[in-house]
Design goal:
It is built from five helices and seven strands, in the order H-H-H-H-H-E-E-E-E-E-E-E. The protein is of the alpha+beta class and about 210 residues long. The chain has two domains: about 10-100, no CATH class; about 120-214, Immunoglobulin-like. Helix 3 (about 35-55) packs antiparallel against helix 4. The radius of gyration is 31 Å and the shape is rod-shaped.
Length: about 210
């Protein structure tokens, strides 16, 4: 669960900022990141001056509180930018490191594999010039609901050698597909199908299906 790693109280925030600065500075070489000194140092100094004045016990004004809030806001923004760019998703930073700094843990996204299962179906011709592909499904018990079916179609008397030779492509997530083929009446039709996932990765071709458009 995501939590805001910036402490709400000024005292806790200042302790966190200083300890995090030291922790990061001690690991710059291992993590291959730039020092926070250029972007963070001036803002750390500005906040320290204004925060120390607030807690010093000396007379303070409303302007002092405003100045401290602005200094904190600037420092918080700088820390968020630095951590997001160099630490939060850096593969060289371990979750143990993040935990030591009070940051959110990071789990790299799991890559989506290419589909690995074959797809089958049946050709039916319910009316003149109409093709309906039914029972589109994987040939195994597996059913990848996140992927769609790529349906390749070719018309003519020359039987395609490979599924890639089928030029007409349809994409569907349904278990059946109805096509108006009146312009192709009197021709053989060849159909082959495979899975295609959200990244455009395709699975292996299924068995080529053959029929005749009456």
């Amino acid at each position: 669960m995501y939590k805001d790693y910036i402490p709400a109280k000024d005292a806790d925030f200042w302790t966190w900022a200083k300890s995090t600065y030291v922790y990061i500075s001690n690991n710059l070489e291992d993590w291959k990141i730039p020092s926070p000194s250029d972007s963070i140092d001036p803002l750390m100094g500005a906040f320290d001056i204004r925060y120390q004045k607030i807690i010093s016990g000396a007379p303070i004004t409303k302007g002092d509180y405003v100045a401290k809030r602005e200094a904190r806001a600037n420092l918080v923004k700088a820390w968020r930018n630095y951590i997001q760019r160099h630490v939060a998703k850096n593969d060289l930073v371990t979750n143990a490191d993040r935990q030591n700094m009070g940051l959110n843990l990071y789990s790299p996204p799991v890559p989506i594999p290419a589909p690995a299962h074959h797809v089958s179906g049946e050709l039916t011709f319910p009316a003149l010039g109409t093709l309906r592909i039914v029972n589109i499904k994987p040939t195994s018990d597996f059913d990848d609901k996140r992927s769609a079916f790529s349906v390749q179609i070719k018309f003519g008397y020359e039987r395609p050698v490979l599924p890639d030779d089928l030029p007409n492509d349809r994409i569907t997530k349904r278990k059946s597909l109805r096509l108006d083929l009146r312009e192709h009446r009197g021709k053989p039709v060849f159909v082959c199908m495979r899975y295609i996932n959200q990244k455009g990765q395709t699975g292996p071709w299924g068995t080529m299906l053959e029929g005749f458009v009456s």
